[in-house]
UniProtKB/TrEMBL annotation:
Species the sequence originates in: Arachis duranensis (Wild peanut)
Protein's name in the database: FBD-associated F-box protein At5g56380 isoform X1
A Pfam family it matches: LRR_At5g56370
Sequence ranges assigned to domain FBD in this UniProt record: 323-395
Gene: LOC107468714
Amino acid sequence: MIDPFGPLGKPAFFFVNAILGQRNADSYPIEKFRLTCEKFEEDSISTWLNAVIGPCLQELYLSLKVNVMFAIKLPKAIFTCTSLKSLVLKGDISLYYGPEFPDVYLPSLKNLELNIARVDNKFLSGCPVLENLKLILQDMTPKGFVYIPTIQMPQTLKSLTFEDYSIVCDEINHRVIDTPSLEYLHVKIVTPVFSELQISVSHFPNMVEAHVDIREEHKLVEHVCWVPMLLQALRETKLLALKPYTTRLSSTQCLFSAPAFKFPEFHRLLNLELDIPFFNTNFLLNFLHSCHVLEALEIRICEEVYVHTMDYNGPTPPTMVPSCVTSHLKSFEFREYQSAADEYEFIAYLLQGGLVLKTVTIHLKSGFDRETKYNIFKDLSAIPRGSRICQLNFH
């Protein structure tokens, strides 16, 4: 981080202009340029960018805080830099040009990270070989006030991190993740009251890790009916984490209330991490019956005062022990354990039925006194175990 102003308020790094101006571009081409700064004037930044953009530039990183009321617009030459392979834009930068958006053609760009004030969906369509995308859409600040009704992710993506805080009330928002080659997905979406969000996804046959964080500011579950559809699309993943950004209405809570919802068959899932708003044995058992080779299970009760217990609308689980419990499950971790009767019975169920379990780790919810902790430890330690090598740990 550089403060370019000296004690008299004059630029302390005026020599940058001289260096870039005197550089012989043919003899000393710039392949990588990284600029992280505050308080620079827009004219200086534009001058520097125009000097470094050229046929040899491969990596460009910009994180800017500028002295303008609105975010800075980049030189249009960036949008057609054919050699650019990696582009990171953060801060007070705008990629919204309205109906006069410039042509975008970045045929070499494989890595793109955008965490900026304004963005236009047209930008993504000009990246034909993009593999890694990190896209963070901020909330509606004065610098970022632009409504983006539809976002279409490039089909070539292998890794996507998508955080969306920009959804507008009283509008229909559409996010399209039609990316059949996707292997890594991290999605965090916040939808306010009176908004309607639609998600369209493809099947992800190559998925390795999927992290889904959903926050709903209301309890209108019909507005998030796409959550079961997203889970169906993720059925080939090896790691699945449903960990809500907050728990007012989480992705797992949407599954609780989804009418006639049936879990997809997870034939490759090895690791499952669930944040659940309240404990429900039938929900967990139905999930486990669909995870045929699951090796590690982690659950956390993320109960909040404003979350009310919902009825689970799913079917009654089969009476037999899930096949993954008897033959594959090696690790189970329970966070925020409250020693409720159904929680105790579920742990006993896994300890007795888990024939290959190696570790069961219990994290007690805070607030228990010393005697209560001891009694919990004693009761759980007395449960018979189906695996001779199973270790019971407490935190």
